[in-house]
Design goal:
heterodimer, A: mainly beta, seven-stranded mixed sheet, four-stranded antiparallel sheet, 50% strand, B: mainly beta, six-stranded mixed sheet, 53% strand, globular
């Protein structure tokens, strides 16, 4: 099956620093990638939709200047949390969807997640 | 707008009991997809099943079974003879067939605890 990786899996940083999280589709080309955020014991909330070669579409309430998304190639999307603060601590999960090859191909493949802790 | 409701936030059962996790969804689309994912303590989402809106056939996979009822907008998940390894958070999700990238809307999740 399709594999999506995330790096790093865990990161601890000081308040005020920026953190970059990478999401890679390892064996397929992903035209669309999604970034989700999950607080402890809560559900996944979509932050933004990233399409290769174009600007990301952010969900309401998500600061685009705070969470920079770059989908520079068909296998890589990055999420940069700029000037991180303790309230940004969360579990960030990406998913990738390949080109639609058939009508009923609507599955997203999830990365293993990145746990961010901001001190 | 689409919405997924998992009314049970936590369920606790004893090993070997059967357990059903409820999922109710709302959508205006006639074409949509429903999913179930398992999230163990490690955090990684494990895909369990995808069902499209035109296929109301129930499915069984080992100890897992799914009951899709369009009439009640429900997509319930049953684990038969539960095991301790089934302990996890289970998410039901919905994706509409639009040009908006087919984003997933997740339910709030049900935390299942299976005790030995």
């Amino acid at each position: 099956g399709a594999v999506v990786s995330q790096h790093p899996s865990r990161v601890i940083c000081k308040s005020g620093t920026s953190v970059k999280i990478e999401c890679r589709s390892l064996d397929f080309q992903a035209t669309t990638m999604f970034w989700y955020r999950q607080f402890p014991k809560k559900s996944l909330m979509l932050m933004a939709t990233s399409n290769e070669g174009s600007k990301a579409t952010y969900e309401q309430g998500v600061e685009k200047d705070k969470f920079l998304i770059n989908h520079a190639s068909l296998t890589l999307s990055t999420l940069t949390v700029t000037s991180a603060h303790p309230e940004d601590s969360s579990f960030y999960i990406c998913s990738a969807r390949g080109p639609r090859m058939e009508r009923d191909n609507n599955e997203q493949f999830f990365g293993p997640g990145t746990r961010l802790t901001v001190l | 707008a689409q919405k997924v409701t998992q009314a049970q936030t936590e369920i606790s059962v004893v090993e070997k009991e059967d357990v059903t996790l409820d999922c109710v969804y709302e959508t205006r689309d006639t074409t949509y997809y429903l999913f179930w994912y398992k999230q163990p303590p490690s955090g990684e989402l494990v895909f369990l099943i995808r069902r499209n809106s035109f296929d109301e056939q129930n499915e069984i996979s080992g100890r897992y079974s799914w009951n899709f009822q369009k009439s009640t907008s429900s997509f319930n998940f049953t684990i038969t003879a539960s095991q301790v390894v089934d302990s996890a958070v289970y998410f039901c999700a919905l994706s509409e067939d639009t040009n908006a990238g087919n984003m997933l809307t997740f339910g709030g999740g049900t935390r299942l605890m299976v005790k030995p």
